[in-house]
């Protein structure tokens, strides 16, 4: 394995490690805050997700935004891994792998758009 390929592998591994670590930490904080506040996870459904509520909710130590952000990061981490690979393949001139990475990102984007009703 060349030095460039090893560097790309390390970068991708770092993206995955940090993404999953951040996700687990945020989910753990959210669960701990639920326990402290006595929130019943099987109680009434929470309000609908609103991205604008994440930052104010985290600053207010509301458990739900921690859980939402943890889930968002967990879902986004594999896409960030593909994006990191795309950048690495572009830098190393691996055109075929650039096309594969772009294809994967297009499929992910279409899936998100179609599932959210945006397309």
Structure description:
The structure is a single chain. This protein has one domain. It is mainly α. It is built from four helices and no strands. The radius of gyration is 18 Å and the shape is elongated.
Beta-strand portion reads: under 5%
Structural class: mainly alpha
| Tally of contiguous helical segments | 4
Question: C-alpha Rg, in Å?
Answer: 18 Å
- Low-pLDDT windows of residues: none
Task: Give keywords.
single chain, mainly alpha, elongated
Give me the secondary-structure topology.
Elements: H1 3-37, H2 54-59, H3 63-92, H4 95-116
Helix pairs in contact: 1-3, 3-4
Summarize the structure.
By secondary structure, the protein is mainly alpha-helical.
């Amino acid at each position: 394995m060349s030095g460039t390929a090893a560097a790309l592998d390390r970068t991708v591994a770092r993206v995955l490690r940090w993404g999953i670590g951040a996700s687990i930490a945020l989910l753990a904080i959210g669960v701990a805050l639920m326990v402290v506040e006595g929130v019943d996870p099987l109680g009434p459904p929470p309000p609908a997700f609103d991205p604008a509520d994440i930052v104010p909710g985290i600053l207010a130590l509301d458990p739900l935004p921690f859980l939402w952000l943890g889930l968002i990061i967990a879902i986004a981490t594999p896409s960030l891994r593909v994006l990191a690979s795309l950048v690495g393949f572009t830098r190393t001139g691996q055109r075929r792998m650039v096309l594969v990475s772009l294809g994967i990102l297009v499929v992910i984007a279409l899936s998100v758009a179609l599932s959210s009703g945006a397309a």
